[in-house]
Amino acid sequence: MSHTVVRTTTTTTTTSSTSDGGFVNVAYLRSFPGLLKFAQVIALLIAFLCVHYSSWTDYSAYRYFEVVTLWFLVAFLIFLLMYMFRLQTKIPCINWTLTEFLHYAIGTILVLIASIVAAVKCHGISGLVAGSVFGFIATFLLAISIWTSYKVTCGSQPTSAAV
User: Fold this and answer.
1) If you average pLDDT over residues 139-160, what whole number do you get?
2) At what angle do helices 96-120 and 126-153 cross, to 10 degrees?
3) Does residue 35 have a pLDDT over 90?
């Protein structure tokens, strides 16, 4: 009598969450654009908190500062989370580079105006001075983001001699 032996093997594959294919893109937070967005969010948060918890008398100037810093804090936090969780790949119908560039351009102008107004009307109150200084730091970081975003959006375009 002859016997036939059949051997079966089972292969188990496990996937780990890495920076290349995982759910959270940790490598983005370590890159220059990720660190820049994180620094912008922190600077805007500190600027908002300094002005919000200070005693001031000129309500319109500091309410404007609070609204501008809080609005762009939320907007740039959304951009940071969007790139960390790779959500821009799930919504390809939006030109995210141009959207981000426009937010940076508008944010830079409005945060600069708010910081100038806050610096002029601070009257030596330390919390307001600190808020306006962090507003200027956020403006500088936003200007760097405009420059890097502009280089990506409108950088060197290849030209061809044959049309």
Assistant:
1) 77
2) 150
3) yes
Those residues with Cβ within 8 angstroms of residue 131's Cβ, 6 or more apart along the chain or in another chain: 46, 47, 48, 49, 50, 51, 54, 65, 118
Distance CA 150, CA 163 (A): 26
Around 46, how many Cα atoms within 13 Å sit in the side-chain half-sphere?
14
Burial label for 124, CB within 10 Å (0-12, 13-18, 19+), is exposed
Per residue in 115-130, pLDDT (tens digit) is: 999 999 888 889 899 9
Q: d(Cα 15, Cα 66) in Å, to the nearest integer?
A: 44
For residue 6 the two structure tokens come to 């059949």
Output the 3-class SS for 11-33: CCCCCCCCCCCCCCCHHHHHCHH
Mean pLDDT of 27-33: 91
User: What's the pTM value of the predicted model, to 2 decimals?
Assistant: 0.77
